[in-house]
Amino acid sequence: MKKVLFTALAAATISVASAQNSAVNSAVLNHKNGTLDKALTDIEKATQHKKTQDKGKTWFYRGVIYQDMIGNPIYGKMTDEKTPLVVLESFDKAIQLDGKDGEFGKQVPERKQMLYGQVLNQAVEFHNNQDWPNAIGKYELAHKISPEDTTAVLYAAYASTANNDYKRAITFYDELLNMGHKTEDVYKAKVQLQQAAEASDDAVMGTLANGLKEHPNSVYLMQEELKYYLKNDRAEEAMDKLDKAIAADPKNASLYAVKGNLLERKKDFDGAREIYKRAIEADPNNFDAYYNLGVLEYNRGADVNNKAAKMDYATYQKKGKALEAEAKKHYQSAVPYFEKAHEIQPEDKATMQNLLNAYTRLGRKADADKISAQLNK
Questions:
Q1: 71 by DSSP, 3-state: which?
Q2: Residue from 122, 115, 139, 119 nearest 67 by CA
Q3: How far apart are alpha carbons 132 and 357 in whole angstroms?
Q4: Among 55, 167, 168, 234, which is disulfide-ready with 160 (CB 3.0 to 4.6 Å)?
Q5: Tell me: the pLDDT tens digits for 112-145?
Q6: DSSP state of 283
Q7: pTM recorded for the entire structure
């Protein structure tokens, strides 16, 4: 009698297990046939039963079924904004149970990459519609799906900036830096956001210092750092730092250009002029040096003109013409520098505008009309 009972119990156990395995198999078959609603019902049953809830296959197909419902014209309405997260959690559990090299675990990376694309597309759609909170949420989820990919993090920073959430944007740029994405643009954007968010000078200077370690020739980062040195009465320290950098790298035109900028700020225009010329000697195509030399000469001409304009009539009759002639020489001196800067960076609007002003001052109408046409394209 005991033997009969044992046999019956064993049979029952086998029957229940088979039924539950059948639920997984049925889910797989329904998925294959495209009846995703039935596949979902079957697989959810399997995730709840003790015989199949710890199987990698169960959770892998749960992820697959939910994933294939996303965007499906028939079954997509059964999904919501949480569905991609359900898919991710299912795949992660499949790997946990099956191992990354198991039959189902090894299929997960390809599926995750597909999920990343799906979520990123959703984020971009929200982004294009300027729905910043939802765009950011999707970018964050995309980053969670593919932690090594920088695209979602970068666009999350863009969306946060567009949403005027500067502090949150900074956290995304910090994440990029932590990921090793240490481009000059990342440091530049972070500095600008810190300035917009009114971060402390120490915080901004810390970012600038880190950026210059990665990009020691960045003119933007050097110039911004100089602003903070000057703001905090550290001009001599800034100059000493520049001189040491130039001594170590005397052919670095960017360093000369930045030093010229610092001398301008100290109102040492003659010193700045000489340093800009040294920058050109080091690099005959240094845009900043040519542009700044043009500005220096043009401004000297404008200063002389202003003196003439402020004279009374009697004084002007005696000295005005000579001053106007002197101003004209400075405008003429500015033109070749601006023209070379324009040649180096033909799309730079500021250069074109300055050339237009100089040509107009000199009465060079044909040249002024030509550059005006380029400026207004």
A1: coil
A2: 115
A3: 42
A4: 168
A5: 999 999 999 999 999 999 999 999 999 999 999 9
A6: -
A7: 0.66
